[in-house]
Design goal:
Helix content: 10-25%
Number of strands: 21
CATH class: Alpha Beta
Number of domains: 1
Distance between the termini: 45 Å
CATH topology: lpxc deacetylase, domain 1
Bound molecules: zinc ion
Radius of gyration: 22 Å
CATH superfamily: lpxc deacetylase, domain 2
Order of helices and strands: HEEEEEEEEHEHEEEEEEHEHEEHEEHE
Shape: globular
Oligomer: single chain
Length: 312
């Protein structure tokens, strides 16, 4: 009563209780797969060749497996250990020359749905580029439905900061109570587009709404060089946002004012899903790409004091 009476006077009001420190909620994460099989078709961005992709449900604990149906069903697990090339896109391989390229946008859509178990059948060496974003894959997974399993999810908690650098590019993973992706992007003085910054929390924000539609992008001068080399045969304004200086040449313009940094976050999110579970940690990338994302996972898992697996 004394305390209440003192509040009614004009003395400085003191809180009646001290709030408890914020405790990390003990969320139950369960493994997931898709509920039914779905199919889509498109062209590979590098080959320009048509490709059919089929997603099928998989058992708990089986992981993400790509299957080359055109080669009699050769299987390649999608993990940081099977990455064989990170130039222009992320490529996984079986160590015997069989590969699957451009997996990152599908991986981001799977990460957003919390899917750790799935079979991805493909009748060629690269995934369809579709519209250059992850949105068609998000729609495909929604069409299949997502199924929760009884098994707890593998949660990879980051225990200490791990950093990798390449010139003016840098990527790090630091301890955090949630999964966070922070990205800084600029064209390194190659055009006058302002620097872009984005912070995205996959467990709390809507990937489908905020990130998934951001497309692959590039500079016109680079695209012309790449095409002259006979690469990126399937790349076009239908699947790539192309800048001539700071101006976008695509007729439909940009989907977001900061579409580039959103796509960078999409790529990081997809590449980090190769960790093999949910990351509890903060990723920070400065001008990063697939190579640095892969190096970061190698550096994290090379240091046993930097991470721990929690099944919960
Ligand atoms: Zn991408």
């Amino acid at each position: 009563m004394t305390a209440l009476r003192s509040i009614s006077t004009n003395t400085v009001q003191q809180p009646l209780y001290v709030p408890l420190p914020q405790l990390e909620p003990r969320v139950q994460h369960r493994q997931k797969t898709i509920a039914s099989s779905v199919v889509c078709q498109g062209i590979g961005v590098h080959s320009g060749a048509p490709v059919t992709l089929t997603l099928r449900p998989a058992e708990a604990g089986s992981g993400i497996t790509f299957i080359r149906t055109d080669l009699g069903g050769i299987e390649i697990k999608a993990t940081w250990q099977t990455v064989v090339d990170t130039r222009r896109c992320t490529t996984i391989g079986n160590g015997k020359g069989v590969t699957v390229s451009t997996i990152e946008h599908l991986m981001a859509a799977l990460a957003a749905s919390g899917i750790d178990n799935i079979r991805v059948e493909i009748d060629g060496p690269e995934l369809p580029i579709l519209d250059g974003s992850a949105q068609p894959f998000v729609t495909l997974i929604e069409e299949a439905g997502v199924e929760s399993m009884r098994a707890p999810r593998r949660v990879i908690r980051v225990l200490k900061t791990v950093t990798v650098e390449e010139g003016d590019r840098k990527a790090s993973l630091s301890p955090s109570s949630t999964y966070e992706i922070e990205v800084d992007f600029d064209f390194g003085g190659r055009n006058n587009l302002p620097a872009q910054h984005l912070s995205f929390r996959p467990l709390e924000q809507d990937f489908a709404e905020d990130i998934s539609a951001a497309r692959t992008f590039g500079l016109l001068e680079d695209a012309e060089k790449i095409w002259a080399m006979g690469l990126a045969k399937g790349a076009s304004l239908n699947n790539t946002l192309v800048f001539d200086g700071a101006k976008v040449i695509n007729e439909d313009g940009m989907r977001f004012e900061d579409e580039c940094v959103r796509h960078k976050a999409l790529d990081a999110f997809g590449d980090l899903h190769l960790a093999g579970g949910l990351i509890l940690g903060k990723f920070h990338g400065v001008r990063t790409g697939h190579g640095l994302h892969h190096k970061l996972l190698l550096a994290l898992f090379a240091d046993p004091k930097a991470w721990i697996v929690e099944a919960r």
